[in-house]
Structure prediction request, 591 residues.
Amino acid sequence: MDTLNFLLENLDQLVALTLEHLMLVSIAVGLAIVTGVPIGIAITQNQRAADIVLYIASVIITIPSIALFGLMIPVLSLIGQGIGYLPAIIAVLLYSQLPIIRNTYTAINNVDPALREAARGIGMTPLQRLRMVEIPLAVPIIMAGVRTAVVMNIGVMAIAAYIGAGGLGTYIQRGISQTDPRQLIIGAMAVSVLAIAADYGLLWVQKKFTPKGMKVAG
Amino acid sequence: MIKLDNLTKIFDTSEGPVTAADHISMEVPSGEICVLLGPSGCGKTTTLKMINRIIPATSGTVFINGEDTSAMDTVDLRRSIGYVIQQIGLFPNMTIEENISVVPRLLGWQPERYKARASELLDMVALDPSTFLKRYPNELSGGQQQRIWVIRALAADPPVMLMDEPFGAIDPINREVIQDEFLKMQAELNKTILFVSHDIDEAVKMADKIAIFRAGKLEQYASPDTILAHPANEFVAGFVGSDRTLKRLQLVRAGQVMGARPTFVQPQQSLSEALVIMERNEHRSITLVNSQHEPIGIISRDVAWNHQGLCGEHYEGLHGIAQQHDDLRTVVAQMFTADSSWLPVVDDQGRLVGDITQRGITHHLGATYRTQG
Ligand SMILES: Nc1ncnc2c1ncn2[C@@H]1O[C@H](COP(=O)(O)OP(=O)(O)OP(=O)(O)O)[C@@H](O)[C@H]1O
Ligand SMILES: [Mg+2]
Prediction:
């Protein structure tokens, strides 16, 4: 009951923190798409490069987020950004690379060789092949990678509250430090609900983006 | 015109070099269909793909309309050649309209022009544009996809087409239909076509020239009739089959073999007149035609001998009838079915224009052996 009252009294704040949380994750994953998709496409050209890049990305993803923040504080302090939004965004950006790069790489590599040859045979340049055939066919799988990245990083962003990034983690952090179960529960619930909602929202977007002629189970 | 001059491809593989095409030289005149024929792995696809440089040649030259293509830009070269690979390569993310117009769009055509072209091509293969333009490939049957697949290669009206077993994936009945459609289109379009097949019947049906390959070498390059009548060696003879003379029947039309001055009688003539005509020509029966000159029956010598009266009163039904454009295989099949040694031949309007006999057919098929010794 207490929790519910607290929730109703602080609804404005909850909405603000949720939006902040969502925005941080969106910016970070957005940047990850901008970097990860081209990297994923580029490494389809070279098996060795692909092995190396995918290895690095999978090593990064195994670093616990707290450790990653710890590593970044001294480095970013040099520019006066040791805590706050920047390290949080960088962490999410790094964590998002693996699902996005790997899915892009796999999707482009798995385009039916017959289609690739058809595209070549009718005189498409490599860029036209990417734009008109390979990327459209890869979009559903790339989007699945984006979804994974978003859902995973909504959780990572909650921890970033400890380095002052804000977002819904603020409730969890305060709940623990003030031994206030109301805030702890609200924070945890809100993060979970947000993750589930984002997953469904992006599934919808993924279906929207899937070329109509392709039946890909989403 | 496509000319291959000593075209050679050597693949470097882990087990050493593989010569997939060995000094292939041949020339396909403009407007002709050349079928590359041979067993699996003999180098047909490799030869074809060297023409649009999907596979770079190890040595040798390709000329198109006299121009050495090695001087041309690869992308430009490919856009000027219609290319149909064996697997259907329609882009699943594009509508049928977008698929058909992909090369015109690459070439920078205006939308009105490439849209009109897409509709025109669909009409050509009897698919209703209003139904199909906006559909996606997975909303079409296999046969429909195959047709789209072929017309897409025609979209920018390339003078040269390369087709790698384009009808290989279709069931035999649909394949016949599409082959016929394709030949009808070709009769109007006059493309220069290289067509890969491993089916001798398809080759005989489609080809102006057949090139027979074995293990990367061109064994014989000649017209279907020459290949069938005079295979250059044991391999070619074995490949085209021991029934090769029967296959030649497909290459000849009834009109080419028929006697062009058929004997006939009309209903109001008497049986004795019919008998005189038959005896003079040593025929065992004679065609009866109506006033439109259409065959309506036959009168046998026995009947004319044993009866009195008019032809119109004593005829029996036709045993069979050959169209001028029927190939000899169809005609012979009819003769065997009717147990008849000859058939009347009619033109498109159904009028009697000739008669065709089993002897005439044998004589025609044998001619090539007599002249060549
Ligand atoms: N990329 C490649 N690397 C190595 N060898 C190849 C390659 N492509 C083809 N070959 C070899 O070259 C030879 C000719 O192949 P090709 O594909 O031209 O045969 P084909 O006549 O088209 O046969 P099919 O009727 O089975 O399609 C074969 O022995 C094949 O194994
Ligand atoms: Mg082949």
Observations:
- The longest strand of chain B covers residues 16-28.
- The radius of gyration of chain B is 26 Å.
- The mean pLDDT of chain B is 92.
